[in-house]
Amino acid sequence: MRRLFTTRILRISLPLLIVTVLATVALIRIRPAFDSAYIGGIPCPQNTHWRIISSPIPTDDGLWSLNGVAAISDRNVWAVGYYTNPGSLTLIEHWNGTAWQIVSSPNAPGISLLNSVSAISVSDIWAVGGSEPSNGGMSPTLTEHWDGQHWTIIPSPNLGLTTNILTSVAAVSSADVWAVGSATLPNPGTGTLVEHWNGTSWTIVPSANVTNAANFLTGITAISKNDLWAVGYAVQNGSGIQTLIEHWDGTSWQIVPSPNAQTTGANFLNSVSASASTNVLAVGEAYDASGASAQTLIERWNGLAWAIIPSANTSHTAYNYLLGVKSISSTDAWAVGYSTSNYYGGRAGQALTEHWNGVAWTRVPTADTSSGQDNLSAIAAVSAHDLWAVGYSKPKYLELQSLIERYRGNAVAHSCSA
Q: Is residue 6 in some structural domain?
């Protein structure tokens, strides 16, 4: 089976990483984690406002992971992802204010997976991802819609000849929804994929690409119908992997210059969120040229330019990844991901959450599962004091369980040292 239908590449040492990105769109969304009460040798306090909320398990064994989350109210939250049975099937869960429950969701023929969800109202929600037919052939995009009663697959176009994947979705209104991802093209190779819903159908909208590079879009955020941002990365031969940021001005998608933490290494942007047109945050990670470690990467748009903001890490010798971000205001934002001390040995890691107070990013302790091997992929906010984060935990080898955490309280009082 070709693992071409998921969102992100597996984070490995830089030389092999570049080869992997060029060869495929993404590999399965399994991230290493470590079971340690200490992060980078510095103990994190256990008094945290993050709490694990019990979530249903589709099967008794296998893999199940939540990749995206959207919050409408404290009694209406949605999470999407996939589970294996034994092939990959869509997974959608709903919070009704009391408990999480699995909601029946359709699947395309073969393998299906959902990466992102965006809610417009209680009866108008979109989830996007990708699929792969069991008999091979082209891997098409997957878009599903909730009308208040049922999830339904809505036809969506494909740009690539072999692989098409949607990694993120954002809605302006019921008749103005955007999804981004990537597609394999004959020339120059993997290119950006942007699709738009106008209330009637999905269509492909031309998007920009770095020349002579493989281009990937991994996140999108909508401020207004004429102000959207998409982020990702571009793999350039001989120039490493560079950040990629594009902006929609109501007429066209254009690349906007963005900085890189490593000029000869690998720089990834995985998610983007905006609270205003002058306050947009993008998060990811940056490897040094050797690929021996990765540090968190956070960039901010102030209305004029993108700039890197110093962010927290478990240590400077670990692999630190930020996969989701939520900007609430210019003085309140959250980022989630995970950290691993040794990618190849023992899969030792821990969920990573960081908070922005308008001055600095600081790490905030999460609620750990009994295995201590937890990863967070996405975050959504009901309010500044009520947030949800989703991902997966790894109770044992070759097994994943969906992970849902909820935050209620004041993060500043419980931050831990970087």
A: no
